[in-house]
């Protein structure tokens, strides 16, 4: 069974994770989120829906 041979696939997986964690992840984390939920104010509670069958 060739899928049990980790020789080529383990190196590809390690190289992919190193690429992601060292190159791509710092670039993605450097972006500032546009919708920061901390700055949002709480609005008044909405009125409950008046269901016609209740």
How confident is the prediction overall: mean pLDDT? 78
- Please state the structural category: mainly alpha
The best one-word shape is elongated
Q: Which consecutive residue ranges, at least 5 long each, have pLDDT under 50?
A: none
**Number of β-strand runs:** 0
Distance between the termini: 63 Å
Describe the structure.
The chain has 54 residues and is mainly α. It has one helix and no strands. The longest helix has 24 residues, at 6-29. The N and C termini lie far apart (63 Å).
Topology overview:
Layout: H1 6-29
InterPro entries: ATP8_metazoa, ATPase_protein_8
Main location: mitochondrion
Keywords: ATP synthesis, CF(0), Hydrogen ion transport, Ion transport, Membrane, Mitochondrion, Transmembrane, Transmembrane helix, Transport
Give a brief rundown of this model:
The chain has one helix at 6-29.
What key phrases describe this protein's structure?
mainly alpha; elongated; 0% strand
């Amino acid at each position: 069974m060739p899928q049990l041979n980790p020789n080529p696939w383990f190196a590809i997986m390690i190289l992919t994770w190193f690429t992601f964690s060292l190159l791509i992840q710092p670039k993605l984390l450097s972006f500032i989120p546009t919708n920061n939920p901390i700055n949002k104010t709480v609005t008044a509670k909405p009125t409950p829906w008046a269901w016609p069958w209740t």
